[in-house]
Amino acid sequence: MISVVVADAHALIRAGIEAVLVGTRFRIVAACANGAEALDAIESHDPVIALLCNELPGMSGIEVLQTLRAARDQRTVVMLADTITDHQLRVMMRVGIQGFVSKSSEAPELLAALEHTSSGQRAIPAALLERARVLAQQPEAANSLEQLTSREQSIAGLVAQGLKNRDIAAQLGIGEGTVKVYLHTIYAKLGIANRTALATLAIRMVT
User: Fold this and answer.
1) What is the percent of the chain with per-residue pLDDT over 90, rounded to a whole number?
2) Could you report the per-residue pLDDT of 164-189, keeping only the tens digit for each?
3) What are the domain boundaries of the chain?
4) What are the beta bridge partners of residue 102?
5) Sequence-distant (≥ 6) Cβ neighbours of residue 53 within 8 angstroms
6) Average of per-residue pLDDT values in the chain
7) Is the alpha carbon torsion for 90, 93, 97, 98 positive or negative?
8) Pairwise CA distance, residues 136 & 36, whole Å
9) CATH no., domain 145-206
10) Which of 51, 96, 147, 192 could be a cystine partner for 197, CB 3.0 to 4.6 Å?
11) Backbone φ and ψ of 51, nearest 5°
12) What is the value of pTM for the model shown?
């Protein structure tokens, strides 16, 4: 059996993946709801494959991938995503990703990706490889909003609308302190100092 750690914020998706793998040679050893859980599970269970959603709460799947590679852990990672930004694609290809599966894929596509990657092959759609090739020939803007996760981009957009932290927290259903943490992370990623600079950048990027 080939051990797999699955990480996705949605219980239904985790259950769906588990159902697909029943009766195959792939066995889920841990199913996680966020990035921190995924890292712990990878350390505890030492799976052959980590199947990660790119937009996990707290620490994204791509950040989990970066953490593994920084620790010289070259185990197979397959990313599960609805969409992927140019920045995310650049990072995945730069640090080393073995596979990519769209969340809209059918079960045979998921199984094929796991089969290919478990045998040492890559399972990345040709269109995505071509997109990565084109991106590699283009400079990456240091302060592009594409560096941000979808939640961070949402917060940047709300800042651009003039909302205060408490209003952003209420709209997104998170704590005001969590908004502050997100903002500090955004500032660091974009190389800016404050919400005024963030608002200016966000407005410029959408006009």
Assistant:
1) 59
2) 999 999 999 999 999 998 898 888 77
3) 2-136, 145-206
4) 81
5) 7, 8, 9, 13, 61, 79, 80, 81, 103
6) 89
7) positive
8) 30
9) 1.10.10.10
10) 192
11) -105, 105
12) 0.69
